[in-house]
Amino acid sequence: MHLLVKGFILSGISGLGWMGLFQLSNYLLTHYSKVKNWKISHHHIMNICEALVSGIQAIVSSVCGIIVVASCRHDVMWATNLLAPWYAWIGGSYFVYDTVAMYQVMVYRSGVGDFFVGCFYCVEFSGPFTNLRIILSRTGLKETRWYLANGLAMIISFTLCRILIFPYMYMAYGAQYNMRVLDVIRTIPLHCNVGSLIVFLPQVHWLRLMILGAIKMLRGKTISEAEEKID
Q1: Beta-carbon contacts of residue 123 (< 8 Å; ≥ 6 apart)
Q2: Residue limits of the TLC domain (predicted)?
Q3: N or C: which end of the chain has fewer CB within 10 A?
């Protein structure tokens, strides 16, 4: 059988496995919440199920990675392990499943929180500038004012839409319910704060790299290709 056909079969089977795991955890949690009179919305149950499957996928992926690294360490260029190409099919099917699961989570939120969904959409506002930076560099325009102007626009847009957007969401929520930001942090569910923090911290790190790159360029030094790949 052709390897491509085998890959699609493996991807299909694993995709059904991911979705089955999601539905099974959904069924068990829903049943448990009814038996224990657990006051939790179906949206939150779906969210927990998605997190459970995501965690399992992360563990499986990590185990496969460790096995591949350990078996190929003696020749990092030419040593092979079947897990490397085959898990790519399994991992690919996971992303298809994840798209379906995220859609269900969005549906079961019952239309609540469109403002916050929109805020996270705005995170991509800096994307055109980060990509234009690479385009200008590859087309030989790295030493021009266009590159510098785009870099400044990238830092400003990144700061607004990936850093300041987080306190803005807390302030907007607090303004609606006449609460201080600290009261908002204490009032909303813990997973909201933890989730925001997990997303927020990498943005601070990337902004730091951008600023260091800008300072380096203003001093007349050359920015490496690795330093440009920030998104």
Answers
A1: 161, 162, 165
A2: 1-219
A3: N
